[in-house]
Amino acid sequence: MTSIVRAVKLRPALYGKLLGSLHSDAVQLDRLTALWAQTVLRLFPDPLRVNGRADGSGANMKPLG
To answer: Which three-class secondary structure state does DSSP give residue 50?
Structure first.
């Protein structure tokens, strides 16, 4: 979720509303996840791989220096 918030430069005050909307039956989470992954791979065609799988979270990144 935080990557979406950063990508669209969502104001912090609206984060709770976004989270609430994702718990709605109107959101098809499988479809949203697939679209997000497709978009990330289009923007970053050579992603970092961990154990052979693309890591789109950045959680495995360590600062340099």
So the answer is: strand
pLDDT tens-digit map of 27-53: 788 898 899 888 888 887 887 777 888
CB-CB contact of 58 with 3 (8 Å) = yes
Please tell me the pTM assigned to this model: 0.48
**28-55 exposure pattern, b = at least 16 Cβ within 10 A, e = fewer:** eeeeeeeeeeeeeeeeeeeeeeeeeeee
Residue 34 to residues 28, 29, 39, 45: CA-CA distances in angstroms? 10, 8, 9, 15
Q: Cα dist. 27→1, 30, 31, 32, 62 in Å?
A: 14, 9, 8, 8, 33
